[in-house]
UniProtKB/TrEMBL annotation:
GO terms for biological process: proteolysis. It comes from Phlebiopsis gigantea (strain 11061_1 CR5-6) (White-rot fungus). This is Carboxypeptidase. SUPFAM superfamilies: alpha/beta-Hydrolases. Keywords: Carboxypeptidase, Glycoprotein, Hydrolase, Protease, Signal. The lineage of its organism: Eukaryota, Fungi, Dikarya, Basidiomycota, Agaricomycotina. One of its GO terms (molecular function) is serine-type carboxypeptidase activity. Its EC number is 3.4.16.-. Belongs to the peptidase S10 family. Residues 1-23 form the signal peptide.
Length: 512
């Protein structure tokens, strides 16, 4: 009897507690909510390293009179109501030939007050044919105007807080760059880029001899490894001390590995986000089983590897009848018209974008786009007769890129020759999927061994003030990071994590 009475009293007490908690939650005011969010943002914004954000730049001058032709006054950048600081931008040719008409557009920023004068980071976006000014404005540049922002704001996670940074619109045919594209493969692209850098260093000769780090995302998983390899294999061509590279959400392997094979597993991981019906899920599960996708990683991705990993099927793009990625994308759009392959968490309505992001969803175009405005072009010495778009309408490889994926060719060599190398992947990226990048790594041999010898731990990537934000592992000069909550553009979606990873590449903090 006492036991029954005790149970009843306990149930009443629990009900009162739950009701009290629910009442408290319902009574939270918007002011309280904003206060809690503000406190969280303060923790997020705090840079715990000595390289905190600040105003102004390190003292840097260039003796070549030509440098003044490219000077950009940081108080005169349209719509930016704060001083970005001095920078230099414009067009330079890809060779010193007197009749050279091919030119690449660049924008160079010196380091901020806490940044290093000894280092230079090069950044390129992918595509191929997508502008690196997107990276500048929405990822790692000193001012930010990202999706949904009404106005530009200072970017406290700008990589200028670590080093000077050079954004280049390349190859020819991208952005403001000039000339007719004629490259056949990545070696041609690398030769043209190094030719541009030779001209750049003649104008800005004080940058010669700096520690050089190459970085980029997406199709830059091809650009950056091949350029880095070209520099290492031609050591007398560039007066820079090349130290290492960063590639994030990179294209480094076959489509069947990076898109088709992991697609259904990805959908299961994020079932509540995709919200696809049971009939469709059963269909793609059956297809994944038939095509050898379902258990591919569980079977073949071992630590250490047991040998070279096979293709799932006979085609590098996916066998006929086994290309599930497009079907999933179409189904996802039926449920969510704003479904974004670059960051799957996006929902309707679509955020306004000052660059008119050419993503996987309908975009109300901003007219004109920020970098296509006449006043912006004048401010940064861009050609006024060029209609700027974020991704080029012309084929920068007129007959396609004849190079094999970098993970099968040059990537092992540049890991071996670099002091440090970094591969990063956002886990909410559906256009290039992290599971495929893991397969590429385990199929690659560098420094005498194939793949990682021990498994990649879970939840061990600790971001200052935030806790575990993904997974990381380092072996034999390669550091691999997977970032939770981030989509394709890691510096845009997880800027603090990206900042911390770049510190690792530069040697400013040890690998986790």
């Amino acid at each position: 009897m006492l036991a029954r009475l005790y149970s009843v009293l306990l149930a009443v007490l629990l009900l009162q507690t739950l009701s009290h908690g629910a009442a408290e939650a319902k009574m939270m005011s918007k002011a309280d909510l904003k206060a809690k969010q503000s406190a969280a943002m303060e923790r997020f914004n705090f840079l715990s390293t000595t390289r905190a954000s600040g105003t102004g730049v390190k003292n840097i001058t260039f003796s070549n009179p030509r440098a003044s032709e490219f000077y950009v006054d940081g108080t005169t950048i349209p719509e930016v109501d704060f001083d970005v600081g001095p920078s230099w931008a414009g067009l330079l040719p890809i060779s010193n030939a007197t009749n050279e008409t091919r030119k690449l557009f660049f924008w160079f920023f010196p380091p901020g007050p806490q940044g290093s004068l000894d280092d230079l980071i090069f950044w390129t976006n992918g595509g191929p044919g997508c502008s690196s000014l997107e990276g500048l404005l929405q990822e790692n540049g000193p001012f930010s105007w990202s999706w949904g922002q009404a106005v530009p704001t200072p970017n406290q996670f700008s990589w200028t807080n670590l080093s000077s940074i050079l954004f280049v619109e390349q190859p020819v045919g991208t952005g403001f760059s000039q000339g007719t594209p004629n490259i056949k493969d990545e070696d041609d692209l690398a030769a043209q880029f190094v030719g541009f850098m030779q001209q750049f260093l003649e104008v800005f000769s004080e940058l010669k001899g700096k520690n050089f780090y190459l970085s980029g995302e997406s199709y830059a998983g091809m650009f950056v490894p091949y350029i880095t390899n070209f520099i290492y294999e031609n050591p007398g061509m560039l007066d820079l001390n090349t130290k290492g590279f960063w590639i994030s959400d990179p294209s480094t392997s076959w489509d069947v590995i990076q898109e088709e094979m992991p697609a259904v597993n990805f959908v299961h991981k994020y079932e509540s986000v995709f919200n696809l019906n049971s009939t469709f899920m059963a269909q793609i599960d059956t297809l994944a089983d038939k095509c050898g996708y379902t258990n591919y990683s569980a079977t073949h991705v071992t630590y250490p590897p047991k040998g070279l990993l096979p293709l799932p099927g006979k085609s590098t793009e996916g066998d006929r009848g086994c290309r599930v990625w497009d079907s999933i994308f179409e189904a996802a759009l039926l449920v969510n018209p704003a479904f974004d392959i670059y960051r799957i968490f996006d929902t309707y309505p679509i955020l306004w974008d000052v660059l008119g992001f050419p993503g996987s969803f309908p975009q109300t175009q901003v007219s004109p786009l920020y970098f296509d405005r006449a006043d912006v072009k004048r401010a940064i010495h861009a050609p006024t007769n060029v209609t700027w778009t974020e991704c080029s309408d012309v084929d920068v490889f007129p007959r396609g890129d004849a190079s094999l994926p970098s993970g099968l060719t040059v990537l092992p060599n540049i890991i071996e020759k670099s002091e440090r190398s970094v591969i990063v992947h956002g886990l909410a990226d559906f256009i290039l999927i992290a599971e495929g990048t893991r397969v590429m790594i385990q199929n690659m041999t560098w420094n005498g061994l194939q793949g990682f010898q021990t498994p990649i731990p879970d939840a061990n990537f600790i971001v200052d003030g935030m806790g575990a934000l993904g997974n990381t592992h380092t072996e034999r000069g390669l550091s691999y990071f997977e970032v939770d909550l981030s989509g394709h553009m890691v510096p845009q979606f997880s800027p603090k994590a990206a900042f911390q990873i770049m510190e690792v590449l530069l040697g400013f903090r040890p690998a986790p």
